[in-house]
Amino acid sequence: MSIDSSPAVDPLLALRAPEDPACDVFLTGTVFLDIVFTGLDSAPVRGTESWARGMGSSPGGVANMATALARLGLRTSLAAAFGDDHYGEYCWDALEQGEGIDLSMSHTVPGWHSPVTVSMAYEGERTMVSHGHEAPPPAAAPGTEGPAFPHCPPRARAAVASLTPGRGEPWVAAAAERGAQIFADVGWDETGRWDLAALPDLAHCAAFLPNAEEAMRYTGRDTPRAAAHALAEHVPLAVVTLGAEGAYAVDAATGTTAEVPAIDVAALDPTGAGDVFVAGFVTGTLADWPLADRLAFAGLTAALSVQEFGGSLSAPGWAEIAAWWQQVRTFEAQDPVALERYAFLERLLPAAHRPWPLRRAVPTIGFRAS
Description:
The protein is of the alpha/beta class and 370 residues long.
């Protein structure tokens, strides 16, 4: 089921040229079926049954990022495996038909069941249980010795990667060689080494976006801001997310720094907020906005996402952003300095046509046709 986020905005409209690649952003990874329970007052207790007041199902995993990018108007291409079960069919349709994501690089695996995550949201946090098996690689492309992907990703303005300690992904170097800006985050280093040299794909990145704890561990610095400056010695643009404090960025080429505080919101479910932040930052970077505007926009989109449940379900579109901007300016006690931080939205947004707060549809696996 698609979410009506019209009127649409193309943030790159003024920059597009006939020779540009058809794809704005390419990404790859594992698509999960997410089943999210909300309205829990506390964590489930062993040996008891808990009833949730709300539930929704949606594509998750890498689909969170793909959906967030697509809803912000970027032409998004996803390479992923889908099971040939009902879950896989639902996720494919939701992404391709509902969100307009290009799945021409994706494939269906016969006899492989879709990975599933059950997420329980309570007290602003989440607890997740997942199950799945690694998908077999796609079949070889005709006339070649291997699959068309991951060795030959499509031409794109940008690509989003998740770095893994001790492992490089051939497609990242290939995408960078074909002109894509690589934006990357990183997961927790289970080895405990926290060695930047163990991230070989970092050398191909235009921007690296770890959280504060990851940044400090990788650099050995005792503050997130010092860690950001240390990371800027290894990557052109270092962005460190600071949780409730916002984000801090260093542009190594110009020496420019920017820091934007987080927007204080009542969080319902933080699932996918990091993906939405990256999507917002990618959008602003490709549109060539000032660094501080990119940080502010990324933080805003993430703040809007945590007020709804689910990962891909909660990613905001331009209608949500426009409605927020219209509403926030009506608050009598609003700090004018804080409001000015988001004044750049005026030249981007359509006129809000729906009242705030917006409530999204709640997708399910599907109903029988009557």
